[in-house]
């Protein structure tokens, strides 16, 4: 059992009450829960799965397992490499293990920030010339870190960039609706949640008279759509190749998406 709270007195009272009714042992501060490692810093918590990645590398990879410097857009890379896992060549296998070696030291940083949910939506158009399908992605942040993100290839072919962007926005809205409805403890009514996107045409269509879920969410006050410059859209690395993204955006995205732990494990050395 994991007890979480912002009041030490309330936590102690809860533990004493449980001890009076059940035979239980206080294990102290938690360090691993449900396969997730918890690292504490002075002003934040870091959630990671370093030990799980180590087990995978130990089982499937016998080469050098020291961490590597890899671009932050791993979600896009994983979506591309996943197509070749059933019959991966040596080159693809090296790329897969390189990504694993990078993610071993990545984690989600949660600091003392206001608990405000923000959403980001983006898409490219015809990212794969073999099937003419696009890649869409979304990111949701709470406070200082990401709570949900996804990059996926569309199941339908978009006829234009604007249509591709709108499909991505619709997926983002659907995920947000499920998130709000599936969390029973979330305060009701939920304050308006802003979804950021870098397409003016997409914003215009979302607020048009066309019947769609996004327009419904806007009309009932669940979400609002706000324009964000492409250089500030942190979901961009989930839908595009590294060479299509500005260095400034990669740095900005690293501050929100899963990133390196602030406290590196001893014994590891970086390689290039």
From TrEMBL:
Residues 1-71 form the Reverse transcriptase Ty1/copia-type domain. Pfam families: RVT_2. Coiled coil: none annotated. This is Reverse transcriptase Ty1/copia-type domain-containing protein. It comes from Centaurea solstitialis.
